């Protein structure tokens, strides 16, 4: 596959083998959400959805000590017409979120330090989020008199339950790493902040080497399960597993198990 976006030198968006790496914050602006990084990331994600960029997983990281501190509030304050300015920012951010959804690849986040506002919204879109001792999460919207964006009011209740989500968002509660793990916002914790990105990177590489059709089907099933009936979910699972058993990756996985060897999904895909 050929890509249509060329990443500039020192780009916040890069491709590491079969992993698309997105660094979404600007450390020179207090780890605020980086608009240019979002634009570049959205373009690359759209290429994945169109089949123009071959990627197996998406890795989202911060660019400094913190994952992302949210939107640049100083820019909000200096805007000539704040509602127009913030609506444009929200639309751009939501383009990124929908592109992340449409790319249909496993999403891993390495959440070091603060993930606040839009940063927390991004964490909630990850399939697997890794945190460490310094990880802290905060909605941060009501603290500046605003309401959430980036899908937080949709994702957070599904992660932690409606009552807890209301408490967290309405009171602008700071959630520490242990709470985030216990409540299902983070998937796992590591003992040292230096290990957060390394662990997240290793997970993304492992997923990228896995069976893409099987992972895509699994993610879809998990997403549907919250609103599906058990009968509908059983029917969807039966369809997915039978369909995947006839794909090259599905055949390779079963044959490798029987042959007592590690599956080579990449070679199977290329045949």
UniProtKB/TrEMBL annotation:
InterPro entries, per the entry: ClpP/crotonase-like_dom_sf, Enoyl-CoA_hyd/isom_CS, Enoyl-CoA_hydra/iso, Enoyl-CoA_hydra_C
Domain of life assignment: Bacteria
SUPFAM superfamilies: ClpP/crotonase
GO biological process: fatty acid metabolic process
Molecular function terms, GO-annotated: enoyl-CoA hydratase activity
Reactions that this protein is recorded to catalyse: a (3S)-3-hydroxyacyl-CoA = a (2E)-enoyl-CoA + H2O; a 4-saturated-(3S)-3-hydroxyacyl-CoA = a (3E)-enoyl-CoA + H2O
One Pfam family matching this protein: ECH_1
Alphabetical keyword list: Fatty acid metabolism, Lipid metabolism
Position of the signal peptide: none
Family statement drawn from the similarity comment of this UniProt entry: Belongs to the enoyl-CoA hydratase/isomerase family.
Function in brief: Could possibly oxidize fatty acids using specific components.
Name used for this protein in its record: Enoyl-CoA hydratase
Species, as recorded: Gordonia otitidis (strain DSM 44809 / CCUG 52243 / JCM 12355 / NBRC 100426 / IFM 10032)
């Amino acid at each position: 596959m050929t890509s249509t976006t060329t990443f500039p030198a020192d780009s916040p968006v890069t491709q590491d083998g079969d992993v698309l790496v997105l660094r979404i914050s600007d450390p020179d602006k207090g780890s605020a959400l980086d608009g240019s990084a979002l634009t570049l990331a959205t373009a690359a994600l759209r290429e994945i959805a169109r089949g123009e960029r071959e990627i197996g997983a998406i890795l989202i990281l911060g660019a400094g000590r913190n994952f992302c501190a949210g939107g640049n509030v100083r820019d909000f304050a200096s805007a000539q017409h704040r509602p127009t300015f913030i609506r444009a920012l929200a639309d751009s951010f939501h383009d990124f979120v929908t592109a992340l959804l449409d790319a249909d690849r496993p999403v891993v986040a390495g959440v070091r330090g603060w993930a606040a506002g839009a940063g927390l919204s991004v964490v909630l879109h990850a399939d697997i989020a890794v945190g460490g001792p310094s990880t802290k999460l905060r909605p941060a919207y009501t603290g500046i008199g605003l309401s959430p964006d980036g899908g937080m009011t949709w994702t957070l209740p599904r992660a932690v339950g409606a009552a807890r989500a209301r408490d967290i968002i309405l009171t602008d509660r700071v959630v520490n790493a242990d709470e985030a793990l216990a409540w299902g916002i983070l998937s796992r914790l590591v003992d040292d902040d230096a290990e957060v990105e390394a662990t997240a990177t290793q997970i993304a590489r492992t997923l990228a080497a896995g069976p893409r059709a099987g992972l895509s089907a699994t993610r879809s099933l998990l997403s549907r399960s919250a609103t599906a009936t058990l009968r509908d979910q059983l029917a969807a699972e039966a369809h997915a597993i039978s369909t995947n058993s006839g794909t090259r990756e599905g055949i390779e996985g079963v044959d490798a198990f029987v042959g007592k060897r590690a599956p080579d999904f990449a070679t199977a895909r290329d045949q």
